[in-house]
Amino acid sequence: MVVEQKQNFDKESEVYTEMLENGIKNTGFSFDYIQEYKVLDLKEEVKKYTNPENELKILDFGCGIGLVTQYLRKHFPNSTLYACDYSKKSIEKCMERNKNIQNLHIMPTNGSDIPFAEKFDIIFIANVVRHIPRPNQKIIFDNLYNSLAENGRIMMYEFNPLNPVSLYFYYKEDRQYDPENVRIMSAGYSRKLFKSANFKDIKTKYRFFVPSSLKKLLWIEKYLKKCPIGANYYLIAKK
Ligand SMILES: C[S@@+](CC[C@H](N)C(=O)[O-])C[C@H]1O[C@@H](n2cnc3c(N)ncnc32)[C@H](O)[C@@H]1O
């Protein structure tokens, strides 16, 4: 049974970019940098099994106000993009922000169903699942599993509770909209969630280590993917 989601994501959408900027200002990186970084990670993973220039179907689940859309278009130029979110206000903002992007379909969801009949080559979920009540997460992952194409991949980005900067951002900014429900998720918890929905070949990688003051050391991040203290982690898996 799906638990009702009571958070006010519409209100959050009004201040989302400001909230992100506040959260990351001490790292010195712009939020554009952070959005593209995640899509570049996705591209790296996709390159391992197919050409990112193929005609792929990509779902951004919990797209919010659509900050990654332009980078999905840039790095997957021939793909058809699909985006959905629980917040109608976010959907409106996502449409407005991305009105010049071709081959993009944007729809609201009821919080548990996938509002497209397609099978996706890629499902991307960034910083969404910790906002979903835990009893609903399994239902949503089962639905995502059913929406993934046979050779598809699912990639999820989340805050890492082992990283003090992420914890600070989580308590100061993220949790204020939803103090009762939102719960930061360890990488171990996320792996169990993926496994419970039958996803296979689940890999965990840790990201965002180097602050802006050490920008010259950014190259080191690709060697730290197994070090469990990055500010974020992602899970990538297949069917
Ligand atoms: C922190 S924002 C992240 C937005 C976007 N993915 C990004 O990285 O900028 C979390 C988003 O998850 C959406 N969300 C929360 N619960 C959801 C659900 N059950 N189904 C779909 N979207 C949901 C919220 O409306 C909100 O836009």
General description of the model:
With 239 residues, the chain is an alpha/beta fold. The protein has helices at 9-24, 31-47, 69-75, 88-97, 134-147, 164-172, 187-196, and strands at residues 57-61, 80-85, 104-108, 120-126, 148-159, 200-207, 232-238. A 7-stranded mixed sheet has the order 3-2-1-4-5-7-6, sandwiched between helices. The chain has a single domain (9-238), classed as Rossmann fold, CATH 3.40.50. The model has no long low-confidence stretch (mean pLDDT 91). Bound molecules: S-adenosylmethionine. Residues 5, 9, 62-64, 67, 85-87, 90, 109, 111, 126-128, 131-132 line the site of S-adenosylmethionine.
Short description:
The chain is built from seven helices and seven strands. It has 239 residues and is of the alpha/beta class.
Number of structural domains? 1
Report the β-strand fraction as a percent range. 15-25%
Radius of gyration: 17 Å
> Which class do the helix and strand fractions yield?
alpha/beta
Give the uncertain stretches in residue-range form. Answer: none
Order of helices and strands: HHEHEHEEHEHHEE
Helix content class: 25-40%
Classified in CATH, the superfamily is Vaccinia Virus protein VP39
Helix count equals 7
Strand order of the largest sheet: 3-2-1-4-5-7-6
The CATH level-2 architecture is identified as 3-Layer(aba) Sandwich
- What molecules are bound to this protein? S-adenosylmethionine
Which overall shape is indicated by the principal axes computed on the Cα atoms? globular
Mean pLDDT value: 91
The name CATH uses for the topology is Rossmann fold
Q: What is the tally of beta strands? A: 7
